[in-house]
Design goal:
By secondary structure, the protein is mostly helical. It contains 14 helices and 4 strands.
Length: about 350
């Protein structure tokens, strides 16, 4: 058996064992507060104990078929949580009563993985009808995408319910753009209860996945002789050549966010920044801006374990952003539509 297959089997066993043995707990927090809010990692233990194993297997199949899908599912979770909380609203199709989030600028021709979530939801519904929300499926799929690319594992607090609507307008107002300056990035993260450190830590998700030229062409548009150090100039020139078709920029051309280890979740993303090889403006600014963001980048360069530990904490923190719980929202039967 190949190393990747062996690793996946071991990871699946760990997930199922933790769930079935009752080892999953919410844990203590140094300030005495419950870091998981109203959510609990063992939420489905009594109603759908096989849910996490089904979801992991679905993500595993999707990533095996297309390695890029790991980054896509992780990004989809980010885009869900930043817009009105982690409520599965990004998964809704447009209806006669509202225009959803899929056609908003940051998502149009960009956000993907919807079919993967659909397929997983169908399997979960067959096993446990009406028990597991689309919002939780997406949150778990994001975690599993990290695990399957050799990143850290963490227990995901669960119990989210699904929204009854979505808002295209809220997307542009909530999501940080790849061309945002550092103050805007910090502000957008603060709006969803995340700190400047969370910004640096969660940006490390760009160690996997791809981006279109339209999201990073500003990096090479300002390219002038002598403006950047040699290594950064060479990198930006290569991007310019990648995206150019004669005198025209092809905005849909794709490249890896981390060119060196594009399918491995590691600290290479941070190692790229001192030499100016951050793909997006918002990536490179974490280093070139100096100050505390650069300090944390430099710390992660030296300590991957610290990055992994902080990433787990920040992901749980983001995933706890304004979830619908209790009797709020619903458990959708189909992630694309509210229940009739």
């Amino acid at each position: 058996m190949e190393r990747g297959s062996t690793m996946a089997v071991v990871l699946r066993f760990c997930i199922v064992f933790a769930l079935m043995s009752g080892l999953v707990t919410s844990g203590a927090h140094p300030n005495g507060a419950n870091p998981n809010g109203p959510l609990q990692p063992n939420y489905y233990l009594g109603t759908c104990p096989q849910a996490e194993a089904i979801i992991f297997a679905g993500v595993q199949r999707a990533v095996a078929q297309e390695a890029r899908m790991a980054g896509s599912l992780l990004r989809l979770h980010f885009h869900d949580c930043f817009v009105n909380g982690c409520d599965g609203s990004v998964l809704l199709d447009d209806t006669a009563t509202f225009v959803g989030e899929k056609t908003a600028g940051p998502n149009l021709n960009s956000s993907r993985g919807f079919e993967v979530i659909d397929a997983i939801k169908q399997e979960v519904e067959s096993a446990c009808p009406g028990k597991v929300s689309c919002a939780d499926i997406l949150t778990l799929a994001a975690r599993d995408s990290v695990v399957l690319t050799r990143g850290p594992y963490w227990e995901v607090p669960l119990g989210r319910r699904d929204s009854l609507t979505a808002s295209k307008a809220a997307v542009a107002n909530s999501l940080p753009a790849p061309t945002s300056n550092i103050s805007t990035l910090i502000s957008k993260f603060k709006d969803v209860g995340l700190t400047e450190n969370d910004l640096v830590t969660l940006s490390g998700a760009h160690t996997i996945g791809k981006a279109r030229c339209v999201t990073f062409n500003s990096r090479f548009m300002a390219l002038k002789p002598g403006r950047y150090p040699t290594l950064e100039t060479e990198f930006l020139t290569s991007l310019q050549q990648l995206c150019s078709q004669g005198l025209v920029i092809n905005n849909d051309t794709l490249t890896e966010l981390d060119l060196k280890t594009p399918f491995t979740f590691d600290k290479q993303y941070y190692e790229n920044l001192p030499s100016g090889e951050g793909l997006l403006d918002s990536d490179q600014l974490l280093y070139s801006n100096g100050g505390s963001t650069r300090n944390l980048v430099e710390f992660y360069i030296k300590n991957q374990e610290a990055f992994f530990n902080d990433f787990k904490i920040s992901m749980i923190k983001m995933g706890n952003n304004r979830p619908l719980t209790g009797t709020n929202g619903e458990i959708r039967q189909n992630c694309r539509f509210v229940n009739s």
